[in-house]
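Much of what follows relies on a compact textual record of a protein's fold. The record below shows the convention in full:
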Amino acid sequence: MSCGLENGSFDLIWCISALEHFGMDNSGYAQAYDLDRDMGIKALRRMMLILADGGTLLLTVPFGQFEDWGWMLNYDMHHWQELLSVARPFADIQEYYFQYVKEKGWICVDSDKLIEIGYNSTNNYGASAIAAAYISKH
């Protein structure tokens, strides 16, 4: 039986604010889950395989200072670039960074402005900042 996950079978993949939970303690969401700190990298590697040549992958993760909350990761530049290194040989990557500002909402910023931003720094009931990648497979 085919599940539609053959290599090159998707023109567009969205992975929006999900990858940070892969391999983490998901007991708040599911009874069965696997703890595997490399699962995010493994998942992105698989997404690159099922993405068609010329296809696009949109990826976002919480971003700023590195934090391990047990149930999710807040990525820093080192961990973000380590993750993206899986896709770089096969794709062009455009990176964008956003910060939540109470008075303005989400604004585009330079990544260096987020070095000291933690997940809950802005009391946003979610991420205070995100990294986004627009990945175009060769």
Notes: The chain has a mean pLDDT of 94. The first helix runs from residue 39 to 50. Strands lie at 10-16, 51-62, 67-68, 73-74, 91-101, 105-108, 129-137. Residues 41 and 83 are 6 Å apart (CA to CA).
